[in-house]
């Protein structure tokens, strides 16, 4: 482990203190998990404290931990993971926060800290159903406005809930229940004994 990563971990523990749930240094990266009730405050400290100076948000995404580690995961189901960059100190950080309630995943919006979080948070809401308290325009960004559910959740049906098609009689697009029929997906080389043999 490099001295720079040890210094970053020490700075994090000094600045964030009891807001930290855990700090992990692995594979040349530092990951800090903060408590949901101090997420926004922690983000401000990460940006504003001169010993950290994470002035840039690189990425933010949602994560569904249902069935993680083959069902051995016992923590909260939904998390928000952000990747931060300090240009001043030339170091990176992974910031993770878990939503306290699996049934109603809610965390604070960090758009007041890094405005680039705007569309990332909308995407996490759209795909995972994670709500961001304080977000000015939290609406779907990738799926249709009439879309039912959140497609990146582990319990979302693979075929979806509804499909849309053009109805020539009504002369408009209509939604209907999914009508996907089961089909043979075994490769021909397995299901046909003579496949690839002499003719």
Rough outline: extended
Strand content: 25-35%
C-alpha termini separation: 61 Å
CATH topology of one domain: Beta Polymerase, domain 2
> Considering the protein shown, what is the CATH homologous superfamily of one domain?
NADH:ubiquinone oxidoreductase Nqo5 subunit
> What's the alpha carbon Rg, rounded to whole Å?
23 Å
| CATH architecture level-2 label of one domain | 2-Layer Sandwich
| Overall pLDDT metric | 90
Secondary structure tally, helices: 4
Main β-sheet description: 5 strands, mixed
Structural class: alpha/beta
Look at the structure and give the CATH class of one domain: Alpha Beta
Strand line-up of the largest beta sheet? 1-2-5-4-3
The residue ranges in which pLDDT falls below 50 over 5 or more consecutive positions are none
Bin the helical content.
10-25%
Q: Total number of β-strand segments?
A: 9
- The SSE order reads HEEHEEEEHEEEH
